[in-house]
Amino acid sequence: MSREILASLIFLAGICQLSVLIASALVPIRLNWREEFRSLSNLHRQLYWVYGGYVVLSIVALALISLLNSVELASGSRLARSVCTYAAAFWGIRLALQGVFDVKQHLTTWWLRAGYYGLSVIFTLLTCIFACAAVWQLSSPIHQ
């Protein structure tokens, strides 16, 4: 695979990561967080929002890094390999969670089911792009 193709795939990954934020924005609404969290203490409610915010911030950061630095991430440098390894782990863990979460009761319409399975495809794609980039770069010359 050429560096140009890899850079294009990483750029595509940036777009995909931003698209995940659409689904993320719907989670508190679709899962009725306001009502569901009402029985929790104020601190617990605040922690859920903080954790959610950190996840969103991480996705935005990975997306912007991918979009603005795709060529550098395809360069084979130690930093590029490190960032791609982190991104592969981040999305790989999220992909694994798809098999653990009990979502059946929430997938009540065709578009929710399609969105859920679409996210699974995106998580797989992101994991593969970044893992491939990290592994491919290991065999390429390292520029430090």
Q: How would you describe what is shown here?
A:
79% of the residues lie in helices and 0% in strands. The model has no long low-confidence stretch (mean pLDDT 91). It has one domain. It is elongated. The chain contains six helices and no strands. The protein is mostly helical and 144 residues long.
First-last Cα distance = 21 Å
Mean pLDDT: 91
Largest sheet: none
Strand content: under 5%
Which range best describes the helical content: under 10%, 10-25%, 25-40%, 40-55%, 55-70% or over 70%? over 70%
Number of structural domains: 1
The number of helical elements comes to 6
What's the Cα radius of gyration? 17 Å
> What series of H and E elements makes up the topology?
HHHHHH
Unreliable segments (pLDDT under 50, ≥5 consecutive)? none
User: What is the strand tally?
Assistant: 0
List the helices and strands and how they pair.
Layout: H1 3-30, H2 33-36, H3 42-68, H4 70-73, H5 78-98, H6 110-139
Care to give the gist of this entry?
The protein is mainly α and 144 residues long. It has helices at 3-30, 33-36, 42-68, 70-73, 78-98, 110-139.
What are its keywords?
mainly alpha, single chain, 144 residues
